[in-house]
Amino acid sequence: MSSTPLAARRRATITDVAREAGTGKTSISRYLNGETSVLSPELRARIEAAIERLDYQPNQMARGLKRGRNRLIGMLLADLTNPYTVEVLQGVEAACHALGLMPLICHAANEVEMERRYLQLLTTYRVEGVIVNALGVREETLRPVGGGGIPAVLVDRSVDGLTADMVGLDNRAAAELGTRHLLDAGFDEIWFVVQPFEQVSSRQVRETAFREVMSAQTGGGMARGRTLVLDLADPREVERSLCTLDRTIDATPRAPADAARHAGADTAPKARPVALFAANAPVALCLALHLKARYGDDWQTRVALLSIDDPEWAELTGVTTIRQPTYEIGYRAVELLHERIEGVQTSARDYLLPGELIVRASTSR
Amino acid sequence: MSSTPLAARRRATITDVAREAGTGKTSISRYLNGETSVLSPELRARIEAAIERLDYQPNQMARGLKRGRNRLIGMLLADLTNPYTVEVLQGVEAACHALGLMPLICHAANEVEMERRYLQLLTTYRVEGVIVNALGVREETLRPVGGGGIPAVLVDRSVDGLTADMVGLDNRAAAELGTRHLLDAGFDEIWFVVQPFEQVSSRQVRETAFREVMSAQTGGGMARGRTLVLDLADPREVERSLCTLDRTIDATPRAPADAARHAGADTAPKARPVALFAANAPVALCLALHLKARYGDDWQTRVALLSIDDPEWAELTGVTTIRQPTYEIGYRAVELLHERIEGVQTSARDYLLPGELIVRASTSR
DNA sequence: CTGTTAGCGCCTTCAC
DNA sequence: GTGAAGGCGCTAACAG
């Protein structure tokens, strides 16, 4: 009825409600906590009315202080710019919703200092657990977490010396899948392009698996494989790396489309474009932008691109991808964390989920 | 020294530190709050040592409870899938960092029910303010916020009946800019494509501005304009709407590239492709995907696409865009909110920031 | 069934 | 300079 004044009034407290309902705080507390059976219908009605009248909402902070658990969990994200991250987040949110948790989302924006700061902040807010999609940092930054600290589960990448559950893509299988696909498609020059991988376990595994499959080739014409490192944080470095790539592409005969088709004779059976295997979406985007700028709209006739991750532009440009089960990864991570919070003590385990190859025009012309 | 046991130990409290340092809680509190001048160097040293030894971190919740301010602000997001949102978020984070605030990020994932739930949750955590990129809902959902409730600032869209600061794109100017660009480029069939806009102020303004510019045309051949509504939440509806579009495109003579150029004669001066003005990136993506599927890789020879928002795939596909100053929007929103939290009482104001037209191949062949 | 009491971890008078 | 005491909003024993 009464219109709200412009100045924000003090929120009602449990004491206010108790007074308004003509009873003690305990009864209110009981009502709030669903111990509804022990309250007389009459009292309950009064309480409900009072709550309604005062627009009362229990103070979660105070509850947390008292109970020692505030239902908050931290979600530390390395890079929200990466579609992977956003998708994982969806799973996290859904799971949190289902389990009555509230995720505190922290975005480190690829800065180690940020990561440190947020981790410490989360600690300060006494989150009950943390899900970490860490930057490639050493254990020390994560000291407050895992093992003896607050429960943690790692997403996508593990951290040396940190004992915690991990959930992510089965990187080995995914990289193998992609490499074999390119091999099967008949490409004979295959580059694996990846950000600096010394610090990041998932990149490491992907790169290793790529090299292993390449060396394990048997049969006819062996395809050449090599790894190109692209440090996206350093534009000049990127430039330099891409130069090597350009040279190789320039040296490769054009795709048969124009030449061979008109000539009729199949004189160059090996004249297939260079294939690029991007270790993740940001790398793939960087490559695509560069190639388009250099080779024009039909860059895909000169280069085949395959990427782990399945960004929204992949379908649009016809780029083949390996889709990660991102939603499941996020969901599972929360479930695991929840178990830990509830006291599960089994030793740390890794959950690897399979990726799905989505073949598009880029690798199947 | 001692290795951390597997079970998480209780965190040290201020009392523990006081005991460890052989002093009272008050001194610890003073130390924590920087009232360092009133402490004897000797005591200060002991406190520092104790804190170090116990790895003590003050409990933010308890502080908040006592002080009545917990430095938490809510950030309610309609759709993290939209690159716009992520970019705004970057600005928000930077500003929060600078102002010592901690954003509690809530993702409604386009569900009104979620929005309601999160808003109530934020209230419950006693956030000091909220930044709302609301769904197209009525005031009632936002009742706890703005006006008499907790301070709020709206991002991108205003809400009827809700008194609060707003910051976002200058939608009118942006839509005019885009429409004029298409007109200047000589397109004579221009469709404005937008999600249902009754509930969302920004969409409304954009659509109105479009129509106004179209009706205000003077001079030679008037271009035809029309509005197409695309309800992305309803795939079948989308399908139906796109059919009308397809018919128009099919009826439009092919671009001069193949026909006219060979014919030599400029028989059809008006034969320009249909131009599509997408009201935002999700719409643009939907259109692009559909057109590519229907008209093949060279769909852009049949349709010109212009979009508000500048997603990462725009550069890749050569689509003209109007870039929003997303980072600034986020940053400014937090600044405004901070002012309100500090008690500024001026009446609600709107801050409109200009968009930037980025012309690419799609509208300038 | 209901109310009283004592804290949760911290900050803030107010004395010493 | 320093410390003791009370209370923020809530819950969890205890009584009645």
- Count of separate DSSP helical elements of chain A: 13
Q: What is the chain-wise order of helices and strands of chain A?
A: HHHHEHEHEEEHEHEHHEHEHEHEE
Mean pLDDT of chain A: 89
Number of strands of chain A: 12
Oligomer: homodimer
Largest sheet of chain A: 6 strands, parallel
User: Helical percent range of chain A?
Assistant: 40-55%
Q: Unreliable stretches of chain A, pLDDT < 50, 5 or more residues? A: 1-7, 257-269
| N- and C-termini, Cα separation of chain A | 69 Å
Strand content of chain A: 15-25%
> What is the CATH topology classification name of the largest domain in chain A?
Rossmann fold
The shape of chain A, in one word, is: elongated
Which structural class best describes the helix and strand composition of chain A?
alpha/beta
Kindly provide the radius of gyration of chain A, computed on alpha-carbon positions and rounded to a whole number of angstroms: 28 Å
CATH superfamily of the largest domain in chain A: Response regulator
